[in-house]
Amino acid sequence: MADGQTLKGVSVKAFDPYAVRVQFPILSRQVNGKPLVYLDNAASAQKPRAVIDALVATMEGGYANVHRGLHTLSNEATEAYEAAREIVARFLNAPSPETIVWTKGGTEAINLVANGVGLSIEPGDEIIVTEMEHHSNIVPWHLLRERRGAVLKWAPIRDDGSLDMEAFAALLGPKTKLVAVTHMSNVLGTINPVAEITRLAHAAGARVLIDGCQGAVHAAPDVQAIGCDYYVLTGHKLFGPTGIGVLYGTAEALEALPPYQGGGEMIETVEKESVTYARPPHRFEAGTPPILEAIGLGAALEWLSQYDPAAVQAHEQSLYRHAVDRLQGHDWLRILGEAEGKGALLTFSVEGAHAHDVAQIMDRYGVAVRAGLHCAEPLAKRLGVTSSTRASFALYNTMEDTDAFVDALIKARNFFV
């Protein structure tokens, strides 16, 4: 896309990863005497200067508590805080800012829904998840299994890492109350057909929650096109701060949820004998909210909106394909997840080496990757691995990063031969 063209009404720039890279101060440092090659983006992305500056500017010149103050600083902070909510709504193509609830992360957003839905769960009611879910989208439903008698049903994956849609559809039935599925697997990179999943689930009378913590970064989410009841994201993977997340819900779905926590801001009136609650989203935002973090996430999404998502995805895919092409023919390497259309995430196991050892040796060459179970133990068991290593690409990574990654991986393998 050329300079000056617009995307959803926002002016975007031609994509140049080197111009992007210089906006991230941390990427100029060295690790163990080598240039930092940061490929742990699926765990947490680095922060651009625009986000750092927004946080510093707010702390230095515009910080106060929000909503309840009448003084200038409080009014300014409230305006910036609520403007960030509007930015998130635009990012998700949500129908209004009132459908955006601030949370402390994606995990809390899922737990908020589980807590509310759980009050109406009866023994035998079914919740469908998939074998590729992150623990954050598994454990809250196990709590309902333990406490309310819910039944967890598992949609299987195929050997290439794609979701078995026929098997998923067969699981749906009159007892299905909720379908909770990831938009994009944090291990396999699989991007699920969430609009079709939603359509099938709604036809069966079930609500749908989409874990978008990875998908929001790589899959250009549009909640109205997806049609889901709930969509969850976390700020730190979207180049924003930690401690901030989002629950999107349709107006109907949010109205149906009871309060998650009690305290200030989430009420209308408090009497000795009774209490009445605010309407969404404030019903779910008890106490002093993550003000700086919300403003930082707004700054991150405004910064990200400069770039055409399709161009970013094409760049990330080119890095992934380059890495895979260079690794062809190495029979000691097993790539986990090769579904068509997957995101730019390369998870693998190395014959004769533990993932932790591979990651530690690669770190000697300045290459940061993730190792372990990736908070997806049921998936690891399905794949028959006890651990794996993951390289996840972002818009600021370059071909030089990819070559450094492959070189370090081969050196790590040779260490064990």
UniProtKB/TrEMBL annotation:
SUPFAM superfamilies: PLP-dependent transferases
Domain Aminotransferase class V: 37-405
Matching Pfam families: Aminotran_5
Keywords: Lyase, Pyridoxal phosphate, Transferase
CDD domains: SufS_like
Protein's UniProt keywords contain Phosphoprotein: no
Signal peptide boundaries: none
Coiled coil: none
Enzyme Commission designation: 2.8.1.7
Catalysis performed (reactions): (sulfur carrier)-H + L-cysteine = (sulfur carrier)-SH + L-alanine
GO MF assignments: cysteine desulfurase activity; selenocysteine lyase activity
Cofactor or coenzyme needed: pyridoxal 5'-phosphate
Physiological role: Catalyzes the removal of elemental sulfur and selenium atoms from L-cysteine, L-cystine, L-selenocysteine, and L-selenocystine to produce L-alanine.
Family membership: Belongs to the class-V pyridoxal-phosphate-dependent aminotransferase family. Csd subfamily.
Name of protein: Cysteine desulfurase
Species this chain originates from: Brevundimonas faecalis
